[in-house]
Amino acid sequence: MSHHIADPVVHREHWREPDDDQLRLECGVCGVWGAPENEASSIVALGLHALQHRGQEACGIASVHNSESFFTERHMGLVGEAFGNADLTNRLPGCAAVGHTRYSTAGGSFLRNVQPMFADLDQGGIAIAHNGNLTNFKHIHAQLVSEGAIFQSTSDSEAILHLIARSRKAKIVERFIDALGRIEGGFALVAQTRFKMIGARDPLGIRPLVLGKLGEAWVLASETCALDTMGATFIRDVEHGEVVVIDEEGLTSIKPFAAQAARPCLFEYVYFARPDSIVNGRSVYEVRKEMGRRLAQEFQIEADIVVPVPDSGVPAALGYAQAAGIPFEMGIIRSHYLGRTFIQPSQASRQKGVRMKHSPNKAVLEGKRVVLIDDSIVRGTTSLKLVRAVRAAGATEVHLRSASPQILYPDFYGIDMPERSQLMAATHSMEEMRAILEVDSLGFLSIDGLYEATGAGPRDNTAPQFTDHYFTGEYPTRLLDREAEEGGREMRGKKVSILTVNA
Ligand code: AMP
User: Fold this and answer.
1) 197 CA to middle of ligand 1, Å?
2) Hey, what CATH topology would domain 286-334+346-453 get?
3) 9-31, pLDDT tens digit by residue?
């Protein structure tokens, strides 16, 4: 086989000082194949804009021109700043493109970790965008380095590129699949080669990926809200463990893994997905409203108003208010000129962010008994600040409700969930939390209430319908890297205490 030397490969990188906290990856990915001449990157930019809530730290687009040349641009910051108001036809030309929007990082927030990642293989280039977190990254990394691989970044996505590059299979799709066979954890991948777009979801479908059409073009994206913004029509979810290959021949579906039942991530419904997305066939907005309704049924309380923590608690608070017959009021106003609090990765900036982000609406709160609703309580930082603000604005009682169960365990599949020592519910009793958060009462939706809200029925404890370890401690895969750190203790499917927590 002759070695292919790629024609112009243009990479532009735009650096700014990152926050240095180390958190896990949360991301949005999208790609388009077969777009009108030089329009693919603009379409992907629209898709990334709709996926901005999945990560605000950095973003990038790689395009393929004439099935020959690759162009990439990677920026720190927001999609609009990087790709808005710009003519991308010259910067990122071609009929195919892949994009990525990134939350903080496995491996630090350095630009060299920003995606899409690109590699020149002997058959030509490949650009890859990855949402998720590999649970055997350290294992693979050590092995590759011992074999002579040189890593440019500390991101697990680069390990996937190395595995593809080193596969002994002949064809690019076979090499891609070969690489998938080596990785473990949660992943949704979109890759562009010179002739093909490839999409893939992990065997349990932990991370989401949907397929759409835009005229003749095929589109892949983390969420359906991106399809809507791109003007594409939703075709179907990429299935768990499915690889889709899109090229001149159309779409080919490959199922390379042993069949397993799907276990998508429950937290997409709780917090992560945008409310106008359809996840696993269910409207995220409707599921969140139903979470609120069930919350009202599980705890009956006398109050004057139901107030959401905007925006994450709004659908649940609406459902709560309707079910309880208590008026819904915007007792907290959110500034829209800041990103999501959590998405500023250090605790110091996170706390500052909370103060800047929400303001109590005194006219609504004064003299009222308030049910305050958020989608989840993680560290408790957001809740305590808001409870104090609501009381300072004159509320006479504050009853805090979380539309999801207590978060007790960290995540390793691509949702930022801190170690147990930082998870409020993992380190405190209910009464301790109530006292710390300075509320009159505190309640969390039950795990069955949450499952029922998704329409999946109660949790099937022998074969859970979702990935839900943050609530239950039952990890759906082995966690090779973490288990190695823990002296080889098997964690899959067990309720285990990963850290010794000083309660
Ligand atoms: P905390 O202040 O740590 O209790 O965080 C709770 C807030 O963060 C809630 O308002 C949630 O909407 C939001 N949140 C929950 N989980 C996540 C996550 N994995 N990534 C970013 N934000 C989150």
Assistant:
1) 34
2) Rossmann fold (3.40.50)
3) 777 766 544 443 333 457 999 99
